[in-house]
UniProtKB/TrEMBL annotation:
Residues 1-26 form the signal peptide. GO terms for biological process: glycerol-3-phosphate metabolic process. Its main location: mitochondrion. This is Glycerol-3-phosphate dehydrogenase. The keyword Oxidoreductase applies. It comes from Urochloa decumbens. The lineage of its organism: Eukaryota, Viridiplantae, Streptophyta, Embryophyta, Tracheophyta.
């Protein structure tokens, strides 16, 4: 038994040890005269360290509260979405003292409700060509560069995905073939894979549910190109944890209640913050505040100047999740033009099919809900291209996200607004970053930190290094990493009678853990084996009880909703399964956080109310007959 444990220990540590050795070798070859190279190597060593974990939440809160007017932070970031966490990571790796506060949980807003695509923008390329718009072309160049970086910096959470575009006449074949070849050309050395044409028979073999003759049209073939796909909220949480590992003080459930100005009232020097878990308030002082609050950035701006003009044009994007048989594993379907000219897609994601999206004006709210007509629009659109009956009863989950588009007063619809980002300082000491998209979060963060450095006359030790920095769990990971878990760990499961029985760490669970946690997956597997938390949370899904405990200890998971929506993705994949898993999730979190009965009851109620905003077929009322087939 002892020998077996030694072999197991050596196996599970191999990937992380190799990563640290590779990073150390890179550090030894870095030029001492290059501060950016030295800073990158130092950050890599901290992130790649075996078992790297961020400081506990209490320590992060104390670091924020410990700042004073005489000894302020360099940068305080408001907003824990992709851009905010990216800015905290960027600034901290430049040697700056950094804090970040988020009113809810990391990725609780727009960043967890995305399309899950990391894309360069085929639509923007089309506009650039036909409108001779160099600005749109630069946007595509830039996004394609960032697309490659996102995939490389979080290899366990991101991957290339082939996307199929159906063509129903020969003009479309030629049009899309040339257009997507140009997309390949623009990507240059950052190309993921070459696009190509497939015949009708080849296309149906690759995508069996694709209709050959929908609505009296004949399929002439398809053109397949590649973009990236991600697990968005886990990537966002990974950014927050990476920022914490390299020195940033990040705190979720910390609401900015007001901004602090200097004695003259002419500059922002910090913020008053309420810890919404304890109800206590404290002040954090900083030389510059970065407003990365997404759709809510106007609210933060008004804390500095109540008369500022709103500059957010909120757009609603609705997505639905369907069973896996709607799309094959490893191949998406992109419909370039729907009845009203919008793009609709079906993509395989985490063992299910995600379809979307809408693009319409909406009000800004904390928990946006999809409207039934938007769900029906998506079902209508995809049914035009499939040979299977599309049913409303198949919708496992449906959600709405708010895109914080930068306002263009001359635009007639949100569809015509560019997704490029805007960085500006409309009050001294307050830098606002908004617009953009998930794909370009890293460069948006870089631009925001650059602006903060200029505004506060800060003295960073080096320039931006995040283009070459993996997030936690990324160093040493490869697609075969799951085999170490499958071969060396057991899932010890507690029965209802209290007995602990062993179970296999099967391939489905091992692959899930490896892709969700990277090289840190072995820590989750250890909990499953050594603490009897190896049972699945929901039938037919690979999420384990051990993940709840791990996320509570190492990923700032403070509520049941945090876990079910953003640490695992069960709320987005299957709302009803998430509801059934809630009681057990609450029990494990209660044990980790020492909750009393009242808190447990409140968490369960809050979780159920949250899941009601996801319009699955069982928690929504619908009467349209077209998609009601059984």
């Amino acid at each position: 038994m002892a020998a077996w444990r030694l072999r197991r220990s050596g196996a599970v540590a191999l990937a992380a040890s190799s990563a640290v050795a590779a990073v150390a070798l890179a550090a030894s070859s870095a030029s001492a005269s290059d501060p950016s190279a030295a800073a990158l190597d130092a950050a890599r060593q901290r992130v790649a360290r075996h078992g790297a974990a961020p400081p506990p939440r209490d320590a992060q809160r104390a670091a924020l509260a410990g700042s004073t007017p005489e000894d302020p932070l360099d940068v305080l970031v408001v907003g824990g979405g992709a851009t905010g966490c990216g800015a905290a990571l960027d600034a901290s790796t430049r040697g700056l003292r950094v804090g970040l506060v988020e009113r809810e949980d990391f990725s609780s807003g727009t960043s967890s409700r995305s399309t899950k695509l990391i894309h360069g923008g085929v639509r923007y390329l089309e506009k650039a060509v036909f409108n001779l718009d160099y600005g749109q072309l630069k946007l595509v160049f830039h996004a394609l560069k960032e697309r490659k970086q996102v995939i490389e910096n979080a290899p366990h959470l991101c991957h290339a995905l082939p996307c199929m575009t159906p063509c129903f006449n020969w003009f479309e074949v030629v049009y899309y073939w040339f257009g997507l070849k140009f997309y390949d050309l623009v990507a240059g050395r950052r190309l993921l894979h070459l696009s190509r044409y497939y015949s009708v028979d080849e296309s149906v073999e690759l995508f069996p549910t694709l209709a050959k003759n929908p609505h009296d049209r004949s399929l002439r073939g398809t053109v397949v190109y590649y973009d990236g796909q991600m697990n968005d909220s886990r990537l966002n949480v990974g950014l927050a944890c990476t920022a914490a590992v390299v020195g940033a003080a990040v705190l979720n459930y910390a609401e900015v209640v007001s901004l602090i100005k200097d004695k003259s009232g002419e500059r922002i020097i910090g913020a008053r913050i309420r810890d919404t878990l304890s109800g206590k308030e404290f002040e954090t002082f900083a030389k510059v505040v970065i407003n990365a609050a997404g759709p809510f950035c106007d609210s933060v701006r008004k804390m500095a100047n109540s008369n500022v003009m709103p500059m957010i044009c909120p757009s609603s994007g609705v997505h639905i999740v369907l069973p896996d048989y709607y799309s094959p594993e490893g191949m998406g379907l992109i419909v370039p033009k729907t009845k009203d000219g919008r793009v609709v897609f079906m993509l395989p994601w985490l063992g299910r099919t995600v379809a979307g999206t809408t693009d319409s004006s909406t009000a800004i709210t904390m928990l946006p809900e999809p409207h039934e007509d938007e769900i029906q629009f998506i079902l209508d659109a995809i049914s035009d291209y499939l040979n299977v009956q599309v049913r409303r009863s198949d919708v496992l989950s449906a959600w709405s996200g708010i895109r914080p588009l930068a306002m263009d007063p001359s635009a007639k619809s949100t569809e015509s607004i560019s997704r490029d980002h805007v960085v500006f300082e409309d009050y001294p000491g307050l830098i606002t970053i908004t617009g953009g998209k998930w794909t370009t979060y890293r460069s948006m963060a870089e631009d925001a930190v650059n602006a903060a450095v200029r505004s506060g006359n800060l003295k960073p030790a080096n320039g931006c290094v995040t283009d070459s920095l993996h997030i936690v769990g990324g160093y040493g990971w490869d697609p075969a990493s799951f085999t170490v878990l499958a071969q060396n760990y057991k899932r010890m499961k507690k029965t209802y009678g209290g007995k602990v029985i062993p179970g296999a760490m099967d391939s489905a669970v091992s692959k899930h853990l490896s892709h969700a946690y990277g090289t840190l997956a072995e820590q989750v597997a250890s909990i499953a084996q050594n603490e009897g938390l190896g049972k699945r949370l929901a039938h037919a899904y690979p999420f384990l009880e051990a993940e709840v405990a791990y996320c509570a200890r190492h990923e700032y998971c403070e509520s049941a909703v945090d876990f079910v929506a953003r640490r695992c993705r069960l709320a987005f994949l299957d709302t009803d399964a998430a509801g059934r898993a809630l009681p057990r999730i609450v029990e494990i979190l209660a044990s980790e956080h020492k909750w009393d009965k009242a808190r447990k009851k409140a968490e369960l109620q809050k979780g159920r109310e949250f899941l009601e905003t996801f319009k699955s077929s069982k928690n929504a009322q619908f009467s349209d007959g077209k998609h009601n087939g059984r």
